[in-house]
Amino acid sequence: MKKKIMGAILTLTLVAGILTGCGQAKETTTSATAKARTLEDIKKDGTIKIGVFSDKNPFGYVDSNGNIQGYDVYFAKRIGKDLLGSEDKVEFVYVEAANRVEYLKSAKVDVILANFTVTKDRSEQVDFALPYMKVALGVVSPDNALITDVEQLKDKTLIVVKGTTAETYFMENHADIKLLKFDEYQEAYDALLDGRGDAFSTDNTEVLAWALQNKGFSVGIESIGSIDTIAPAVQKRNTELLEWINSEIKALAEEQFFHKNFEETLKPVYGDNIDPENLVVEGGEL
Amino acid sequence: MQDSGIQVLFQGTNFLRLLEGLLVSLRISIIAMGLSVVLGIPFGVIMTSKNMIIRFISRIYLETVRIMPQLVLLFLVYFGAAKHVGVNFSGGMAAVIVFTFWGTAEMGDLVRSALISIPVHQYESGFALGMTKIQVHWYLIIPQTVRRLLPSLMNLLTRMIKTTSLVVLIGVVEVVKVGKQIIDASRYTTPTAALWVYGAIFLMYFAICYPFSMASALLEKKLKD
Q1: pLDDT in tens, B213-223
Q2: Which domains are delineated in chain B?
Q3: Which of A61, A93, A108 shows the shortest C-beta gap to B185?
Q4: Chain B interface mutation, best of A61, A189, A265, highest count of B Cβ atoms under 10 Å
Q5: Does the structure's ipTM exceed the value 0.85?
Q6: What is the pLDDT, as a whole number, of residue A28?
């Protein structure tokens, strides 16, 4: 009796193994994706599905009246207007950082406009259009000892958060700066407030927003380190749609659309002191 | 001086949106639970079968559901079905399917354990009276198991309500996600909002789960007589 059960279990695991094995092999060759809607399909349908964040203020967030707002959303609405004739033709789908790629692969959205940073790994999974924004590192320090140049940091203490691009950048390129590392943003900010370090560095969007809320601190260096770009993404090989978005981004450069977008959505958060050239990309040109 | 975080709850339509989110959570779990009860009872009876193969297959189903995280199941049904089979479920539909799939297995196991806790002489007396197998179950066994089932049933339901917070990953905006949206929208103006918003969500969960526990306690008392 026992032997019989063991035998049954063994065969079952073997069969399951073979089945999943086959499944995986198939997946890599056909790279399972649902067929994305072409530009033609979208025009015929009359609505475009755009995936945005709903909790990433000021890029994509829901205001207290339940309306979706932000830098990404502002661009999405413009796409709806230029492609289908009205801002209301955009169907917003709320995505999470972890499922953005899946939404494209399963063709549940046409375009992702969710603060999607272009990386090599992601480029293998989706097709990125021209960038419409860029991020770099920023350095925030007290007004009475403002750091405006990286040379000033020599032999001083810089606060960073572990695992961020700031940590890697300063370790590799500026070995003469002493780094004070923390696990969490809150601890790092507390350390800066206490004066345990001379400055703090992380993504420039983050430090700019923080400096605005904390009097006596300013962002002396707004852009340093390698620049990452943020771009719309479509499903792999959805060429027509990709080309339409690219030509749209190029055409919008003429009216400085993204500068206007910046004024409307980012400036209220980042304040007057910030130079839009450090964040905004026009016409896809860095 | 920054605004007190509690104000955030009453700005614009924030509170209403939280309630709507709660309704989404509640609707998914109630529909899924209803279906699970309907499908789980026959499944539980099947699980007590003397046939080895039937027992083995139902065991595999149960274990699969228990081992697989609900999140994986949600992704499989929502994204996987669209990619591999071309079936495009809405987020809410996918959630109900997954929660029913999960609930049926759990419910089945609960029914099974309740059934085998009924003494053998109950069955034997039924058969001795000339009742068929179905009659024995319908008139004798199932009524007796219901009372034993109620506490664990309510436990399963409240677990399901709380697990609905996962469905945000397949695009369904439920109460916790609305909370996050509210916190984030006021991130720069009211950094202390998080405590109040999560506090409100905690109370909301309590407010919907507690009546179910109360109702089950009452029913249990009533059915005892």
Answers
A1: 888 888 878 87
A2: 6-224 (1.10.3720.10)
A3: A61
A4: A61
A5: no
A6: 37
